[in-house]
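User: Please run a holo structure prediction.
Assistant: Happy to. Please share the sequence and the ligand.
User: Here you go; the ligand is pyridoxal-5'-phosphate.
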Amino acid sequence: MNNGQRYEPLTVPKRVILGPGPSSANPRVLRAMSLPIVGYLDPAFFEILDELSGMLGEIFKTNQRAFAVAGAGSAGMEAGLVSLASPGDTVIVCSYGYFCERQIIMAERIGFNVVPLRTEWGRSMDPKVLADALDEHPDTQLVVGIHAETSAGTSHPIAEFARLAHKAGALFMTDVVTSLAGCELKFDEWDLDYAYAGSQKCLAAPPGISPVALSERALEYIRNRPKPPSSWYLDLSLIADYWGSDHVAHHTAPVSMIYGLREAVGMALNETLETRWERHEANAAALRSGLEALNLEMPVPESDRLDQLTVVKLPEGVDDIKLRNQLLNEYSIEVGRGLGKFAGDVVRVGLMGESCVPANVFALLNALEKVLPEHGFEVANGAAMAAASSQLAMKPSPIYSV
Ligand SMILES: Cc1ncc(COP(=O)(O)O)c(C=O)c1O
């Protein structure tokens, strides 16, 4: 009790967040979120929506529709599935990780005829697998494929997936939750129909809003489908209408989240997308050099890896939970656990958005160097930091000051 109050102001620990998301948010973003609330139908708020829609278009590299779904990345996922096909339709889901399996669960709940294409975790999917499935299922309405699978640390050739889907007369939707603003993504050039992201990864806003891009072709489909999507809240055409020039009322928009997203996207555009991609590349390369110097294995081959998320195999005898707890309790560093098939065998290190800076690479390598010998895995003192440092000398990280 304090001054007769039951609850004191909330406090939280300060962490170095190097997990699979969320990443840290810049104080400028948090400040924007504390601005006064305006009504979701206030013309002043429409100005913010119009500006943000254009800014998101730049981030997705699209001149078509760009807006945000109120909800986590999974809301963007479910909105795409429920809007872009009807129950009973054939939907092909490429599956090479935990989040692909989530898409399959959602697709089955909606009542699609789901064709799961399961390929090896930790490897990019060969587009030929999709080409063969499309030959087998010429009536396919929608193909779904994730760009950056955070659970497996893999990148996938979605431009080729989209080309194959369109050749077969299907729409193509993709998950860019971990890729948006962290690596090359070109919505229009790659001819994508729908891409959804999360605010909390390489954009470095708090979690809870899902930026999306939608093609005119996909919007046309939703407007003309025989029955509207079974979810009113996640009907992408209704959300697009609220963000469109008429600002047709839908649910009450999450005003403060939209302020935060606007600020985070503005900071990404100030940095420039290409520089931001380069920053993710340079820091990931430094991290990997350091991990190699520690003799730690990375199960994903170099050609298939993500820069935003590195999967690290736990050496024999190193306990996943103990290691992660020790990093959190003694160094205030969060790294992620393995999911699905990788559970217990790996840790996942994210270098995303605000968290993707050399200081964090060195902090983690230093902590691992100290902690691993306590788990019976001997490492050479100083080798990891020297390796990361040489790598950064060869390919420096652009300075992050926006
Ligand atoms: C690739 C991918 N898709 C979807 C999601 C789900 O996003 P959310 O947790 O914001 O619902 C995540 C979350 O980590 C993800 O990494």
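The chain has a mean pLDDT of 97.
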